[in-house]
Amino acid sequence: MNRPFPLGTGAAGVRRSRFSLSIGVLCAVLLSACAAPEEEEPEIKLPSEPTVISPDRVVTCAEAGDCGEAGSVRWSMPLDGDYYTERLDSGLSILLPEREWMGWTHPAQAALVHRGVIHYYEQDRFTAVDAENGEALWSVTVDPERPKVVRKVHALGDGLLVGTVDERTGDESLYRVSPDGGGTWERIGADEGDLRVDEAGEHRALLADREGRYLLFDSESGGIAWSRKPPVDIGVALLTPEGVYLRSSSAQDEDAPSRLLRLDLEDGRTAADTELPEGPGTSSLQAVLDGAAVFKASAGGKDTLWAADAETGDVLWERPEEASFVAADPGGSLLYVQEGEEYRAVDAGSGEVVEEDVSGETSLLIDGFGARHAEPRRGDSESDLLGSVPRAYGPGVEEFGVDAGTVVWELASYAAEDGSAVGVYHGCAPGGLEPPRQDAAAGGWRCTSPRLFAVDYGV
User: Fold this and answer.
1) Three-point CA angle 390, 394, 395, nearest 5°
2) Which tops the pLDDT comparison, 138 or 173?
3) DSSP-derived secondary structure letter, 72
4) Exposed/middle/buried for 122, CB within 10 Å: 0-12, 13-18, 19+?
5) How far apart are CA 365 and CA 359, in angstroms?
6) Sheet containing 400-401: which strands, arranged edge to edge?
7) What is the spatial distance between Cα 443 and Cα 117, in angstroms, rounded to a whole number?
8) pLDDT digits (tens, 9 = 90+) for 109-152
9) C-alpha distance from residue 87 to each of 96, 259, 401 (Å)
10) DSSP annotation string for 267-307
11) Are 162 and 153 in contact (CB under 8 A)?
12) How far is CA 42 from CA 4, 7, 17, 234, 378, in A?
């Protein structure tokens, strides 16, 4: 990856600019051919006043007494080691641990929240953190001797299912990470060849290989329950309590009707094979709920929702309003959708709106929360880019800036034990960024106070 060296600093920059301007005016007046000396970059000023994430220890909102308020830091924990900034194509920067900055590939940090535990990972190094108080629970590096890039992480039982690929060879590997013994890992499915994870449920995971074969992994038995190669190319796969739903792809024959297959969970046999009607645009399967297969249709730059009977293929309903699928009520018959700025509950069988405003259903709508940075503008200074403040959003949230540190990015959102929405963030505490040095272990700005912290959304 291209690593542009960040701009330099120096208080003399402003003085040199004024001197250059004076020389230029004098040259113009005297009609001289002299040229102004090269300008230095302006001084870079970053926030340095301490914030709640500044202490080099675990901090909780109980100390400040602002738990639950929009924008309050629920907890903050220090991360080990030094981190360095990496410039993105947009001009903004992210923080990478030193070992990743020096590596040959640079994925961003990520987090997955499951059963009250935040699984924060940097490539193949996983750290489990208590979502309520920020206490580290365990940490493990998965198969450190094998070169790989983490592609997908799924929750499975109390642990994780981690899909990786060696980008130099294309070889894919699959690992199961468990909290047992302070964090352990095992490679699974090695005898089955290269595998990837398509879907994961409470204790089952749907795997796929390069030959188009699907396999069901059962975490309770610790093995592959069955493998099956469907009779058609598959575009989308969903794992549900009723079975594995596979929607055919049009990659080989665009004129062939789209089909929806249901494989039995116990043995993988085809329990249903349904021809689907032509939807109102390019359609992708979103959910199967209460016998209704729900699709998102994209046409003319507009996304809409429609549904068909999963067993007969009959169209059940179409909603012409532009909308996006957010979540399905597990074990129920309601879909949660976003139409404009509104979040509504829709009956999966009829498409009728059951409730006009469900923004208070925080746990079910948690995927609708997040934070975004403003697009950088031409002329933005290094101070602007490094200090860009992400703005938090979500159902019922009045947007606010997350300004507890610099180079801050949102990683995940979760519903706390009290039902409130919380965001997980990664960044550098104020005053912790040091300008690049040629004798440093890595390029970019060095962060000596990296933090993982959680922010309340106030709903």
Assistant:
1) 165
2) 138
3) -
4) buried
5) 8
6) 370-372, 391-393, 400-401
7) 33
8) 799 999 999 999 998 999 999 999 999 999 999 999 888 889 88
9) 10, 44, 21
10) T--EEEEEEPPPPSSEEEEEEEETTEEEEEEEETTEEEEEE
11) yes
12) 18, 9, 8, 55, 16
Reported as type and span, the H/E element at residue 29 is helix 12-29
Place of tokens 């549900």: 240
Domain spans of the chain, in order of start: 1-43, 48-92+373-459
**What is the H or E stretch that residue 123 is in?**
none
Tokens of 373: 């940075």
Q: How many residues does the chain have?
A: 459
The pLDDT of 92-121, averaged and rounded, is 82
Using alpha carbons, list the distances in angstroms from residue 154 to 107, 196, 238, 418.
17, 11, 14, 24
Alpha-carbon distance of 406 to 291, in angstroms, equals 48
Mode of pairing for the β-strands spanning 334-339 and 324-328: antiparallel
Quote the CA–CA distance of 199 and 189 in Å, as a whole number.
16
pTM of the shown model: 0.83
Q: How is the beta sheet containing 315-319 ordered, strand by strand?
A: 282-289, 292-299, 302-309, 315-319
Question: Rounded distance, CA 129 to CA 113, Å?
Answer: 9
Burial (CB count <10 Å: 0-12, 13-18, 19+), residue 451 = buried
Q: Single out the residue of 347, 345, 402 nearest to residue 369, CA to CA.
A: 402
